[in-house]
Amino acid sequence: MPPPRCYLRKPGAIIMIRKASIELAVAIPAAILSVLGALHASSFPQQTAYLPTTVLSIMSLLLVLWAFQSVMALRRNQSSTLILEKGKARRFLLLVLSTATLIALAPALGFVTSFFIFIPLSGFILGYKHWKPLLAAGTIFSLLIYLIFKVLLSRPLPPELFIHLF
Amino acid sequence: MWDNILSALPLLFSPSVLIAMLVGTTIGVFIGALPGLSATMGIAVLIPLTFTMEPLVALGMMAGIFNGAMYGGAIPAILLRIPGTPAGIATVFDGNPMAQKGEGLKAMKIALMSSCIGGSISALCLLLLSPPLASLALRFGPVELFWIAVFGLAAISVLLSDVPVKGLISACFGLLIGMVGIDSMSGYERFTFDVLELSSGISILVILTGLYAIPPALTLAQEATLIKKGAEANSLSASKSKIRWSFFIPTWCRASIIGVIVGIIPGTGGNIAAMLSWNETRRVSKDSSRFGKGAPEGVAAAECANNADNASSLIPALTLGIPGSSVSAVILGGLLVHGLQPGPELFTQSAPVTYGFILSMLVTSIMLFFVGRAGARVFINVMYMPPLILAPIIIALTAIGIYAINNSIFEVWLVFFFGIIGWCMERLSIPLAPAVLAVILGPIAESSLRRAMIIGRGDFAFLFSSPIALVLVTIITLTILSPLIRRVIGHPLLKRASIPQSNDSDQKKHLDS
């Protein structure tokens, strides 16, 4: 059987990073934060401080150990490689940004109105260029949300902009 | 026990619960059939939406998703050589060669029947094994409860990650998140940084949906694997030969036992159960050379075992409050949301709902057969749903689900924040389950420790005073040292099994622009 056909476009630029380098870059600041957290927790009253101080102290040690393991992996050249493709990174960032915009605007526009805009627009900017399915998905989903949350469950949601407009 | 089962039956067979189970099973198969989505994500997204429902309606839906998703993973595994869920990996070995021979529909029928049988046997084991274990656990005092919580954390942190340090870091992160807010015993605020919304702590729902629902959506958009329709056409041109079901009985028995045992062990999961079962079936077969080339028993073994793992993984979760896998951790979160505290008290204080939930695992396993047969063609089409539409839908559903609980946009931001953290953790191979488990077990461990210290008048030796505590401390030590022990003894069982390679790189191509 031939493999299933996929939509494929030209691969974007590729950046290769050693995973241990990223781990080291995460572990060191996290260890510093953890030590600061342990110091902060030690200022709590005795009974309240006991568990946070213990957990943060153990976490600091574990993070130092993780950093050490990463350094060893880099020195021995044993680290695996993370491949960052431009297209993938772009889609990830676009979805993160559009989600942040959705959360920021939803209380003002209303959830149903926001979803009606968010779903087709996000799909489009992510690379799905078929308007009909995008609009259909946005409309059906927004309608279902309205029916479930407003009509069926009667949840108090922010006022919808489309109700004010029409 | 029988009285409790009888009292749960009217609740279970009420129309709302039956509809919820049917809907849950159907959604579960849909989710499982979509590569990249799992039962864990499905339940995490669903929990906030079920917040206003009756507990058994919500739990019945979760049971349906759990069982349905495990079978749903077999559909793309058989037809496209892409496992829909991690537990579907072993199904690829024989399922896809069957599809290549034009026996795709036959492989799907075998997978469906095997999933139903595995799921049903597992649910019966949950029903019969949990009550005695719970009554034993009821005798535990604060010392034992503290060590059980530590054991749960140690087991899942060490066993779920290739690098135990990462598992333990994840557990510490979860414990820390669980401490945010006003300390219930002293009234002192911890790690709130004067943010009013944090003073009541971070809800388990926020953690669950953040860590389990957002990262798969981000990954779906990032990978953008689009499969063009028609790929399965040749696989389904089925030969109409009758399936001799009696031939599979020994395989089902073996796979069910393996699945149930693996499910009970913390830190394992459906993928390990399916792999072990497939390997064992091949080992005992008279002609093992057929395996990996389209042996129907291979499909039966893998699918029966991964569904047999489902309910049995809830045995330690329901009786001791220790989930053995990420999906059971999410279900524990679901129980907490509906006011049910996981642990032995579930079987006394909330017996009708608890037994109703256990029975719903059995009913949804049977229901799966009818849903799978009736909707086979529809479920095949689900695989082609564009991920670039699906990803924003998952995010939108998560956002409104969380908002609708407390009308708090702050919690939606928190979910988003935890989602990005979860995505980063996945990229760095840091397991998510220890963090979630720590949020659940942290408060139990802390309150048990404080009670033990009060009873023991501040003497730490009191923590080692009972024989059960000493046994638990020994098990914890062995668990933490297990990676070292494994390295000394030799390779784990799985490495010995020569498993056919499934190279799906030619199928998973991504969209770049």
UniProtKB/TrEMBL annotation, chain B:
Q: Name one Pfam family in it.
A: TctA
- Which residues are listed as membrane-spanning? 12-34, 110-129, 136-159, 165-183, 195-214, 255-276, 317-340, 352-372, 384-406, 412-440, 460-485
Domain (DUF112) spans 18-437
Q: Which domain of life is it from?
A: Bacteria
Fetch the InterPro entries from UniProt. Answer: DUF112_TM (IPR002823)
What keywords are assigned to this protein?
Membrane, Transmembrane, Transmembrane helix
Name of the protein in question: Tricarboxylate transport membrane protein TctA
